[in-house]
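Researcher: Sequence recovery benchmark, item below. Answer with residues only.
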């Protein structure tokens, strides 16, 4: 490897990415991924009450049979709360639950709405969500194999794996419930994480065709520099929008927005540190994009 400054930075970033992958895998296996009610089944009761009590105070007021199994969280609307119970809770009737809350809180509690998900439905949703992730990943791999040289395709896939592992690791560390919103965020991450990788790969292909005698490291640096401003503008505006959703979207959209925010951030990072370096490690060179000489039949 020649001592190009940007090349050294890219490989230093690759080393940092490998460390973050190891930490993310540790978080996934140590903390575990916590499935939400969409997959485990249960009941969510939305209720309102005229009180300035916070989440900690309301949780401390819960008594048997809700204490220990119920979880209260703030809804997006003011004065509205979510009570989440497992599918095997001793009380599953929403009206009975609200009446019990009224007794335990010592004030009137109004039922807003209730959603019940059975365990069989949750298992079906889990299978369908996993199938959607697998099908989308295989479709992207097929497209890359057709669109680019296989080394570029493998580098883009490595970038996708990197982004998925880092996102899942942070979700496990933060204890975010894995529900359908998180699955939707992961599907969006799979699509977006390849965006910059494909842009850089497309520019690199043009550079390699135009510079057949140059080494791949300098050509990759040229491709990264040529697309860097576009990458910053695209990622910056996207992250700004997602940050607004993360801060103002409330608890209901927290899982989706945090998944998407981390996925876009890691996808932008990996397009330079993973995708652009793995292809070099696999032996990509300008000769792979040069036209093959045509065989001319000799006249007798």
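Model:
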């Amino acid at each position: 490897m020649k001592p190009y400054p940007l090349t050294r930075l890219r490989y230093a970033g690759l080393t940092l990415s490998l460390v973050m992958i190891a930490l993310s895998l540790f978080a996934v296996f140590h903390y575990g991924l916590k499935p939400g009610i969409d997959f485990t089944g249960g009941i969510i009761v939305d209720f309102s009450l005229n009180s300035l009590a916070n989440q900690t105070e309301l949780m401390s007021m819960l008594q048997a049979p809700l204490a220990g199994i119920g979880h209260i969280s703030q809804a997006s609307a003011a004065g509205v709360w979510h009570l989440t119970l497992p599918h095997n809770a001793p009380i599953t009737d929403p009206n009975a639950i609200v009446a019990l809350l009224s007794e335990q809180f010592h004030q009137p509690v109004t039922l807003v709405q209730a959603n019940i998900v059975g365990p069989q439905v949750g298992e079906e949703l889990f299978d369908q969500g996993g199938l959607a992730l697998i099908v989308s990943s295989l479709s992207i791999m097929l497209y890359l194999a057709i669109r680019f040289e296989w080394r570029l395709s493998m580098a883009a896939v490595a970038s996708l794996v990197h982004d998925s592992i880092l996102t899942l690791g942070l979700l496990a560390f933060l204890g975010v419930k894995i529900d359908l919103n998180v699955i939707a965020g992961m599907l969006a991450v799979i699509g977006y994480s390849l965006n910059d990788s494909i842009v850089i790969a497309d520019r690199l292909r043009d550079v390699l065709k135009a510079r057949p005698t140059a080494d791949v490291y300098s050509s990759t640096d040229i491709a990264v520099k040529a697309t860097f401003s576009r990458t910053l503008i695209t990622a910056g505006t996207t992250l700004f929008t997602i940050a607004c959703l993360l801060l103002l979207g409330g608890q209901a959209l927290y899982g989706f927005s945090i998944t998407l925010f981390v996925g876009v951030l890691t996808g932008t990072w990996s397009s330079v540190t993973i995708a652009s370096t793995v292809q070099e490690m696999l032996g990509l060179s300008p000769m792979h994009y040069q036209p093959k000489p045509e065989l001319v039949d000799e006249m007798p």
